[in-house]
Records
---
Amino acid sequence: MTARWVRRPRGPLAGLVAAMVLAGGCVVGGVSESGPQSRPEPPRQSAAPGAERTRADGSTSVAEFKEDFAVAVEKAEVYWAEQFRASGRRFQPIRRVVPYQREGEVSCGGQALPRNNAVYCSAGDFIAYDVRWSVAAFRQVGDAFLYYLLGHEYAHGVQVRLGIRYSFTIQQELQADCMAGAYLGGSIRSRQLTLEDGDLEEFREGLLAVGDDPDQPWFAEGAHGTAEQRTDSFFRGYEKGLSACDLG
Ligand SMILES: [Zn+2]
C-alpha cells in the first residue's frame, strides 16, 4: 500500500456485487487442483462496472493498478517468508502472478480461465487475475480490495504448501480469508504497510461484495461463506494473527 494505500470508495457497489455473484464459484479465488470450472459470462454492463471511468487525478490507471498489485505480492512474500522462518521452515514464494484480459488466455491444469475472476492455480503454482475485472473492483471499492484479493489468493498457495485440504470448500475459503487478514494486519503492525483512513471500511465493503448468496448451502461445492462469515474470518486473522486461522 505505501503512499497509495489511500483510495476512497468509488461510488455504489451494486455493479461489482452483480459481477461477483454472477461469476460464482471461487470468485475471489479458489484452490483448484484441476482448474476452475467454467461459468457463464456475466452481462457486459456488470462485467466491468466503471472500467471506463477515470479518476480526476488519473491515479487508477491499469499501470498503476499493476504497480500496486506488485507491492501487495512483494509484501505477501515478506510476510509468509517470516512466518515460515519463525516455524523453522523455508518458504518458496508463489512462482508467478499473471494478469490476463481474455477468456482462455491463461489456463490452469488444461482448463481455460474465464473472465471476471482471480484464482490460485495449484497445478502451475501461480495466481492469475482478469486485469480489467480487478481494476474495476479496485476503482469501485478502493485499493484495500486489491490487497485483500491478493492476500486471499496467496493464502491458497500457502495452504497447498502446508498440505491443508479441507473436505468442504467453505472451510478452505474462510481459512484463506483469515490468512489474508493475518497477512494484512501483521504487515501493518510490522510497518511493511500503512493503513490509511477509509481502508478498513474498504475491506468491509469488499467482503460484503464477495459473500455468497444467502440461499447458497454452506456445504455446496464452491461455497465461500456469507458476507458475515467472510468478514468475521478476515477480521479474526487481521486482529489476532495466524494463530486464529487453525493452521494446525
Ligand atoms: Zn478462494
---
Amino acid sequence: MTIRQTDVVIIGAGPAGLFSVFQAGQLGLKCEVIDILEQPGGQCAELYPEKPIYDIPGIPHCSGGSLTTGLMAQIERFAPIFHLGAQADQLE
Ligand SMILES: Cc1cc2nc3c(=O)[nH]c(=O)nc-3n(C[C@H](O)[C@H](O)[C@H](O)COP(=O)(O)OP(=O)(O)OC[C@H]3O[C@@H](n4cnc5c(N)ncnc54)[C@H](O)[C@@H]3O)c2cc1C
C-alpha cells in the first residue's frame, strides 16, 4: 500500500470513517481511507447489510447496505482514495 501525499488518512471505512471523508471534503481536504475489509461500510456492510436501521436522523428506516450506499454516494464528489484489504499496523 502506498499513500501519496494527502491531507487526511482515515483508518476504517465504517460509517464514521466515510462521513469523516464528507466532513473533511467540505473543508477542502483530500482523504485516503484504509480498511482491512474488502468493502467499505464497516459493521453495516459486513455484519448486517439487510437488517433495518431505525435510528438515523431524517431517515425513517434503511438497511446497513443502503446506508453504506448512501454514504458512498455522499462522498463521491470528493474522490477519496480507498485502500481496501489493507491493515494499518503502524504510524510514522
Ligand atoms: C448486528 C449489529 C446491528 C447493529 N444495528 C445498529 C442499528 O440499528 N443502529 C445503530 O445506530 N447502530 C447499529 N449497530 C452499531 C453500528 O453498526 C456501529 O455503531 C457502527 O458500525 C460504528 O461505525 P464505525 O465507523 O465507528 O465503526 P465500524 O463500523 O466498526 O468500522 C470500523 C472499520 O475500521 C476497520 N479497521 C479497524 N482497525 C483497522 C486497521 N488497523 N486497519 C484497517 N482497517 C481497520 C474495520 O475493518 C471496520 O471496517 C449495529 C451493530 C451490529 C453488530
